[in-house]
Each structure stands twice: as structure tokens, then as C-alpha cells.
Design a protein that fits this description.
- The structure is a homodimer.
- Chain A is mainly alpha-helical.
- Chain A has a domain of 132 residues: Tetracycline Repressor, domain 2, CATH 1.10.357.10.
- Chain A has nine helices and no strands.
- In chain A, α6 packs across α7 and α7 packs across α8.
- The longest helix of chain A has 25 residues.
- The N and C termini of chain A lie far apart (47 Å).
- At the A-B interface, α6, α7, α8 and α9 of A face α6, α7, α8 and α9 of B.
- Chain A binds a DNA duplex through α3.
Chain lengths: 190, 190
DNA sequence: GTCTATACTTTGATAGAC
DNA sequence: GTCTATCAAAGTATAGAC
């Protein structure tokens, strides 16, 4: 299945939103990076920038969710899997010169009080991440409430570490947040 | 000392940046909220939006740093102080209808890869918070390295919780992050 | 249906009247 | 020195040629 023009537009949006945020990215810039004519963006997204933004948030969120399986499936246990997820985030930050962090967080903060449809899209994504992580922790033997709290704490630590790492241009916060998440998980597993 | 026009401009910028981000806030909107004529913004900030942004980041960061003293000075011990800081953040989120989170994080993510002067300003702010929190933890008896790691972990948890709370319109992540920070601190204090 | 050209608004920034 | 009027560029969105 070849990549369609619509796919290229969403991919370009995802990359630019991550680097510059939603408000800081223009429609012209998006089609230029997607090698698409300007009009096609409104052909595929009649709702304009907001519709494209919502679609981009959902696609980026689903892609990032797949990373969870990518790290946790081959891991010998859930603790090791979480440990390697944070280590992988640190590698990505360093290799991208601190450009690639969370694909959702920047837009989430920008739109939380400015666009209800976009805020709802970011909420759906975060909910899906929380549910997926909580399911993994429940599979490891934790009760539902503990699993959910651990999932939220782990994702909060990850998100906050992305903020600090990109601002400080250092992976130290990601290493600390990973250690905290692992310690909390170990303690809960007894 | 009466509030000057320059102060009002910085205050208005801080409020708008928190709600809409840096790119999403216009110079016209800032002077309108500050009840100042348009020209005065370039009189006080010849460097334009970037200079105003840097000043706003520094002032907002210093103000938020004062909150640390406000919560930790009257607390009977550092654990209780941290606990109440997170509880206060949850109250602020709820009372502001999830509009008031971290005054720096939105801009920090936006500018991390787009403006080196602004990124450096956000880094200075986060460094000052880390140093202040680490000093508090060291005063409580921890060695420097442990105190620093706890400070970074606590601030990362706080920042990530702000992201999740504003997106989900729930204070649950802040409550979880507060419990994690308190647990880590208690464990380190022995 | 794809794409170009353009409409209209708003942006950051400046010049110059007072 | 304070403020108004305006600039050139970039913003989103649309109309219509092909």
C-alpha cells in the first residue's frame, strides 16, 4: 500500500508539530514538507487546520502507543521493559539533538485552553496510553487501581522528563525519571 | 512602587503564554491586555517578541520559584511541604478550570528547537528550580547527589502531571505524581 | 479531482506625528 | 517619549482553471 498524499500531509504535520508546536506551524510549511500542492490540504481536510491537527494527534498517539509493545513484548519482564523504554527515550533525545520528544505534549499544552476538539483528541491519546500501560502492569499481577496509578505516574514522569531534557539539553532527567518509575514498579510488585 | 507599563506588559505576556503558548500569542493581544499602546512594547523591548519572551520566562520562573518557599517554609517537615505543594497545584488547576498549569512548560516545549535564546531562558529557570529543591532536600539530611536526583524526579513528575491534568481535565495525575514524589522522598530519608 | 492563484486577515515590526 | 498609522510578510482559507 503506497503512501498517499493524505498520509504524507499527516506525517509532515506530525514532524512539524513536534518541532514547532501547533500554532507555530503553518499550512504552507506542511504541504511544502509533504511535497503536496497547497489545495490538497483542504481537499483532504475540509475542516482546515483544526481537523488536520486532530487527525495528526490521533495518528501520532497511535504510533507512539505501538512503541510500548515494541519495548515490552521482547522484554523478559515488565520492569526491564519499562527500564528500556526510558533508556530508548534518552537515546532518541540525544540522537535527534533534543528535537524528538513526546509527539503530543507540546500540542496538548498549547490547545488545552484554546481548542476543545484538539484538547479532546490529546485526552483520548493519553487515556489510551494510560490504559495500555495499566493493562501491562495488571498482567504482571497488580490490582487494577495500583496498575492505573503506576501507569499514570510512569507516563507523567516520562512527559515531565521530556520537558526538562529538551530545555536543559541533557538526558539526566530521563534517566532519573526511568529510575523512579522502575523503583515504584518494583515496590508495587513486592 | 507602582506597577509600570513594562511590568504590565510582562504580566500580560505571562498570562497569555500560559494559556496560548508563545507562537499562539500576538503582540497586539499582549498590549491590549496590558492596556498599553502598541508602540510601547517596542520601546521597552527593542529586541521584539523574542526579548519580551525571554524576560517573561525569567520573571515567571522567579515567581514560581517563590511558591517553593511559600509552601516549604511553614511546613513542619520537607515531606509535608512537598505533599502540600502538589495539593496546591491540584487546587489551582481545578479552580482555574485547568487553565493555570506550569507557566514555563508550554513555551519550553515550543522553543526548545526553534529559538536558542528562549530555550536557554527556560533552561535557566528549570535549573534554578532544581537547585532550590535539591537544597531543601539536602537540608533535610540527604547527600548532594541523592538530593539532586530527587529534585529532578519531583519536578519532572510535577511537569508531566500538569500536561496530563490539563489534557484530561482531571487532577488525578497530580495526586498520583504527588504520592510518587512523597514516597520517593520518604524512602530516601530512610 | 489536482492544483494554482488569490482573497482577506493577522502577524511582527517601524516610521513619524505629536 | 507616547502613541497612531502603516509596512511587508505570513497566516488560513477559497474560488475556479484545467
Amino acid at each position: 500500500m503506497p503512501e498517499t498524499t493524505k498520509d504524507r500531509i499527516v506525517d509532515a504535520s506530525a514532524e512539524l508539530f513536534q518541532l514547532q508546536g501547533y500554532a507555530g506551524t503553518g499550512m504552507r510549511q506542511i504541504v511544502a514538507r509533504a511535497s503536496a500542492p497547497f489545495g490538497s490540504i483542504y481537499h483532504h481536510f475540509p475542516g482546515g487546520k483544526e481537523e488536520l491537527g486532530a487527525e495528526t494527534i490521533r495518528v501520532s498517539g497511535a504510533l507512539y502507543l505501538q512503541l510500548l509493545d515494541l519495548f515490552l513484548d521482547p522484554a523478559p519482564d515488565v520492569v526491564t521493559g519499562v527500564e528500556e523504554f526510558f533508556a530508548g527515550a534518552a537515546v532518541t533525545l540525544r540522537e535527534s539533538d533534543y528535537a524528538e520528544g513526546c509527539p503530543i505534549a507540546t500540542v496538548a499544552l498549547e490547545v488545552a485552553s484554546t481548542s476543545e476538539p484538539l484538547r479532546a483528541a490529546t485526552a483520548e491519546v493519553f487515556d489510551s496510553w494510560i490504559d495500555a500501560a495499566a493493562a501491562r502492569f495488571a498482567d504482571a499481577g497488580l490490582d487494577a487501581a495500583t496498575a492505573r496509578a503506576l501507569a499514570i505516574g510512569t507516563i507523567a514522569g516520562l512527559e515531565g522528563a521530556f520537558v526538562l531534557c529538551r530545555a536543559l539539553r541533557s538526558t539526566e532527567p530521563m534517566e532519573v525519571a526511568g529510575a523512579v518509575a522502575v523503583a515504584q514498579l518494583r515496590a508495587a510488585l513486592g
